[in-house]
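Following up on my earlier message about cytidine-5'-monophosphate. Here are the inputs again, as you asked, copied directly from the submission form:
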Amino acid sequence: MQATKRVTLIIGGGIAAYKCLDLIRQLRAAGVSVTPVLTRAATQFVTPMSVAALAGSQVYQDLFDLKDEAEMGHIQLSRASDLIVVAPATADLMARMAGGHADDLASTLLLATDKPVMIAPAMNLRMWEHPATQRNLAQLRADGVQVIGPNSGDMACGEYGPGRMSEPAEIVAAIAARATPGPLAGKRLLVTSGPTHEPIDPVRYIANRSSGAQGTAIARALCALGAEVIFVTGPATVPPPDGVNLHRVETAREMLAACLSALPVDGAVMAAAVADWRVATDFAQKIKKGPQGIPELQFSENPDILATVSAHAQRPRLVVGFAAETENVIAHAAAKRARKGCDWIVANDVSPATGIMGGSENAVHLITATGAEDWPRLPKSEVATRLAARIAEALA
Ligand code: C5P
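Thanks, got it. Here's what our run produced:
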């Protein structure tokens, strides 16, 4: 595939449109020319003047503009680009794309184009989670549209969750990654990583020593092979990789919800160190020291995300779990593979003497249906590269 040199950027009408000014700047800095198309609603959020100035191009807005049609109509706008990017893709724009509408320049261009289309959705999280939007998303994916994000986080509407448009750098990275299709191009992979934090009360939580390093390295390695990676991470100490669809969560239950909303995927790698138990009592206030003595915590069991995904109606073709053991590593891991219903288990010895938990190296055994392979002690990045190559082979 050729490097993307010309992008037609359709800017939808959402607050995230402001990020498009930076996106245009970054694309041009990367040597990509940008032809901007604004929907009518987009002009409420960014002005055609600022878009035109940054793009160094005329801004196209009207389907029935005689001057524009004479110079550059909707067909021409498609022909003159290597890729159409829709950012922000609002719920309405996605619905109109999924329904094949053609009632303004943006939708007509999207219906008329034979070029690849990439969308960066952005909307309130309830709009994102609404079954109608999820239906439209599934339809757009089935139509071959590449979806970048959305990320989770604080939103302009004051809520927290999935719906934030991917950052301009993430969109630029996704566009750049198109030029180098690896063996996982066109495949969607879910990766979980990091610990979970299970609240005790509003200020305390139960955690574990996972740094998220191995899961992060795996997500990066899968991206490098061209996969679209949905990266669901607990509060890790290492930063997330670039170019993934990032979902930050805290608890096991949030992690499960994020994983289920990522389905369908081709493969899942569950590297997170999920807490097995959470505190059953909902302490709305900080537990105080006092004459009542030392508090007693009651626990309930967390959902097993790996087992749930392995038994799901939309089970990925390949499900990879991890087993951190401190004794009888291979026997325990093989039993875990059967119990959880996954295809492979990456097993390692995390006894403190190994220095693996939180360290930069890993010594793993890959347990599959046909037996156990012992891999040498390697940097976590190297374990990730090898595992990603095996995943690419399995999903080929
Ligand atoms: O049972 P154990 O925690 O040892 O299993 C480890 C594997 O199961 C890892 O892949 C981990 O991500 C996954 N797991 C999970 N949900 C849990 C516990 C573990 O997905 N509640």
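One observation from looking it over: The longest strand covers residues 318-325. Hope that helps, and feel free to reply on this thread.
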